[in-house]
Each structure stands twice: as structure tokens, then as C-alpha cells.
Amino acid sequence: MLFFRLVGRILILAGQVTLTLTLTIIFGYILLNLGPVRWIHQTWIGSNALGWLLQFMGWEGIEYTLDTLVLLSYGSMLPPSIWISVVLSRYLGTFKIRGNKKCSSAS
């Protein structure tokens, strides 16, 4: 019985980790391709702000900024993904089948 409970917890944990990483990748992709990163590269204000950041940090190439934007976008999407995964697992945990328990009124 203890073995099955342990295996069940390991499967739930693996499912939570998989869901969290999947949501992080999806949200990060949306942020990079549909969100403010596109705005930064396409507008005059965004490109000036990016140039100022490059000069301020002492970076010399665009590859540094791309790596930084990817890291920031995925890093900013990790906490909401963890939160959604935890809330979803707790919500789905309320639907567990509790077995045949006797009613308190029945003797």
C-alpha cells in the first residue's frame, strides 16, 4: 500500500513539473513572438531603449541582448506557470474518489 502511494506521489510530481515546463515554454514563446519583444525591435522608442541598455551595460553585439531577452521572458513566465500548475493540481485533487466511507448518520 505504501509503495502505491509513493508511486502515485511521484507521478503527480512528474506531472506538475511537466505541466510547469510546458506552460513556461508556451508563455515564453508568446511573450517573445507576440509580445513586447517584437515591439522593442520594431519601434523607434524600443530600439533607442535597447541601444541605451547596450551602451549602459557595455555590451557590443546584438547576441547579448537576444540572450538576455530570452532569459528574461522565460524567467518572468516561470512563476505564473508554477502558480497555475499548483492551483490546477489542488483543484483536480478535490475530485479524488474517496472510496466507500460510511455516513455518520448510518449505524
What does this 3D model show about the protein?
- This protein has 107 residues and is mainly alpha-helical.
- The chain has a domain at 25-81.
- It is built from 4 helices and no strands.
- The protein has helices at residues 2-34, 36-42, 44-57, 62-93.
- Helix 1 (2-34) crosses helix 4 (62-93) and helix 2 (36-42) crosses helix 3.
- It is elongated and about 60 Å long.
C-alpha geometry: elongated
Q: Report the mean per-residue pLDDT as an integer.
A: 77
User: What portion of residues is helical?
Assistant: over 70%
Largest sheet: number of strands, sense, barrel closure: none
Show unreliable segments. none
Class from helix and strand fractions: mainly alpha
Span from first to last CA?
28 Å
The H/E string reads HHHH
**Cα-based radius of gyration, to the nearest Å:** 23 Å
Kindly state the number of beta strands: 0
Determine the strand fraction and express it as a percent band: under 5%
Number of helices: 4
